[in-house]
Amino acid sequence: MSGLTKQEQLVLGIIVGLLLTGLLVKFYREAHPAATPAVSSAKP
Q: Cα dihedral angle (42, 39, 22, 29), rounded to 10 degrees?
């Protein structure tokens, strides 16, 4: 990464961090499903 400026490295690090966070949330939600389904407030 020596060809990248400090700002480019920062942006790349943030993007990679967000992608990893998204993957972790996805795997967590698959492993821990919601106990109760969402209730809609629509009136019949």
A: -160
